[in-house]
Amino acid sequence: MSELFREATPEERREYYTKEWSAKKLPDFIVETLEEREFGFDHTGEGPNDRKNAFSDIRDLEDYVKATSPYAIFSSVALYEDPREMEGWIGAELVFDIDAKDLPLRRCLHIHPSGQVCPLCLEDAKELARDTLVILKEDFGFEEVHVVYSGRGYHIRILDDWALDLDHKAREKILTYVSAAEEITFEDLQSRRIMLSSGYFRVFRLRFGYFIRRINENHLRNIGLRKNQIESLLEKREELYEGFVKNAFLTAFPQGIGQKGILKLFALSSTFSKAYFDGKVTIDVKRILRVPSSLHSKVGFVTTYIGQEEDKLEKFDPFKDAVPEFRRGEVREAYRQWTEEHGESI
Ligand SMILES: [Zn+2]
């Protein structure tokens, strides 16, 4: 049986790096800052032990990669005056990491345990990445926002000058905003502040939209909703999505839920949305991240640069656009088998 995700062998790594990969595949935002980045290599699959590498010429990086066919390649999100010593910190990209294997709320909860991924949670991660991209551009005005398929999810990497300068406290604040982690109160509901369409309520509604389409009976029972409330909520979830999320009509909530019930739903949505991102990646200004175009050997996919626009992300399909040559036939077959088995879930 073909496997959708599997570890690449050392021979396959060699084939990928010698035949398919070249430094030309690196995105411009890496090439333009090459000299200021620290590079880390994992040669064995045990983690990036070969650290503190720096390259002043792209050809040297290419030679090193082609000679060693590493298990994984990373580079710093920070730019340094002296990357070899990780000294003279100039700034660091602002990064959001959405990992499908860690999503607490996903449509495939009944298909596989957490820690694994499938086409459905990768699709869910893509929706979260798209919403995040919109928030970062519209609410913060970031202009240099790059989206990368990491192999098991999505990285959003921001290189605007003012983003590079942010300290970890400021990054934490942006993370709180983007996660819609602020509490919605009774007063917010009463004053109808919730109906404002800009600012915080955009992020809140986007996260609530993701939430309302994926929650199940158990989630709702756990927050103390009654059987009839649960039934009408699940029945009307698409209506609620259209009415509340798209148009901010609080009246979209079914009769009988009440303000208390609505607040409980909002609170549960926030609990989930806080866990959509790996917050450590956003706050840490000395992190290393997978280099776009490198092979994610553990899952057998290519870490792929997607671009800066929403529609590029929308069109991106990891099962077509992030498959190394040596797995083309295998992934096509495995994907076909997966949809045959779980097609009704899509
Ligand atoms: Zn899944």
Automatic annotation (TrEMBL):
E.C. code: 2.7.7.-
GO MF annotation list: DNA-directed RNA polymerase activity; metal ion binding
Active site: 97, 99, 278
Cellular component aspect of the GO annotation: DNA-directed RNA polymerase complex; primosome complex
Cofactor(s), names only, from the UniProt record: Mg(2+); Mn(2+)
UniProt GO BP: DNA replication, synthesis of primer
Signal peptide: none
Gene3D superfamilies hit by this protein: DNA primase S, domain 2, DNA primase, PRIM domain
Name of a matching Pfam family: DNA_primase_S
Record key words, sorted: DNA replication, DNA-directed RNA polymerase, Magnesium, Manganese, Metal-binding, Nucleotidyltransferase, Primosome, Transcription, Transferase
Family assignment from sequence similarity: Belongs to the eukaryotic-type primase small subunit family.
Function: RNA polymerase that catalyzes the synthesis of short RNA molecules used as primers for DNA polymerase during DNA replication. Catalytic subunit of DNA primase, an RNA polymerase that catalyzes the synthesis of short RNA molecules used as primers for DNA polymerase during DNA replication. The small subunit contains the primase catalytic core and has DNA synthesis activity on its own. Binding to the large subunit stabilizes and modulates the activity, increasing the rate of DNA synthesis while decreasing the length of the DNA fragments, and conferring RNA synthesis capability. The DNA polymerase activity may enable DNA primase to also catalyze primer extension after primer synthesis. May also play a role in DNA repair.
Subunit structure: Heterodimer of a small subunit (PriS) and a large subunit (PriL).
Name of the protein described by the UniProt record: DNA primase small subunit PriS
Species name: Thermococcus gorgonarius
